[in-house]
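User: Run a structure prediction on this.
Assistant: Running it now.
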Amino acid sequence: MLITRILTALVLLPLMLAALFLFPAAAWAGFSWLIVVLALWEYARMVGMSVPRQACYLALSTLFAAAAWLGHWRMQGFEHGAVLALWLLLVPAWLAKRWRMPSGLPAWLLGWALMLPAWFAFLEWRPNATAHDALALLAVMGLVWVADIAAYFSGKAFGRRKLAPAISPGKSWEGVYGAVVCVAIYVALVDHFGWLDIKLPLWGLLALALPLTAVSVCGDLLESWFKRSAGIKDSSRLLPGHGGVYDRIDSLIAVLAVSNALRALGGM
C-alpha cells in the first residue's frame, strides 16, 4: 500500500506543481475546480444522494463556480467569518458530539460550506499567474502536506495514546505532536526563504501555525467520521493507494479556507 501511495504521489505532485506555476488564471480556476468538484461528488455519495440528485448538485455547483469566476466574485467579511465559525467552532463540536451526517437540504448546504471556500481560497491565494503568488499558495499547501506526513510517521513510530478512537483509531496524540514540531520547522524555513508575503515576525507565524495544524487535523477527522457514518473505507477509488480526492484534500480544504479567512480579516 505504501509503495502504491508513493507512486501515485509521484504522478500527482508534478501535475499539481505544473498547474500551480504554469497555468494562466482561467486554467488554474478550472483545474482547482476539478479537484473540488470531484471531492464534492464523493461527499454527495457519502451523504446518500441518489445519482440524479448528485448530477443536479454538481451541475448547480459548477454553474455557481462559473458565475463566480466570470463575475469576479470573491468572498467577503461575513463569509470569511462564517468559515472561521465552521472550522473553529462547529467542526470541533461535531467531532466531540459525533453527530451523524445530515441529509436533504442540510447535506447540500454543508457540502457547499466545506468545499466552496476552499475553491475561493485556491483563487485568492493565487490571484495572478505569477511565481510569487504560486509560492504563497504552495507554502500553505505545504503546511498541510508536512503535517500529514509527519503525523503519519510519528504515529507509526511513537503512537501510544489514541487521538479519536471512535472516529479514526489509527491516529494518535504522538502523531499530532510530531506534526506540530515538523510544521514549526517548516514555517521557519518558509519564512527564511520569503515564500509568504505576510508582515509578521517568525514567532507570529509560528503562533498561527499551531491552530492551522489543529484545523488540518480536524479536517482529516471530519472526513473520517463521514466515512465511518457512511460505512465506507475510502471516499472513492479514484487515486490508487490514496482512496478518493476528498481523502487527499480533507485537511487541505480546511486549512485553505481558514488561512484565507484569517488573511482577509487581517489576521495574516
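The first strand starts at residue 162 and ends at 164.
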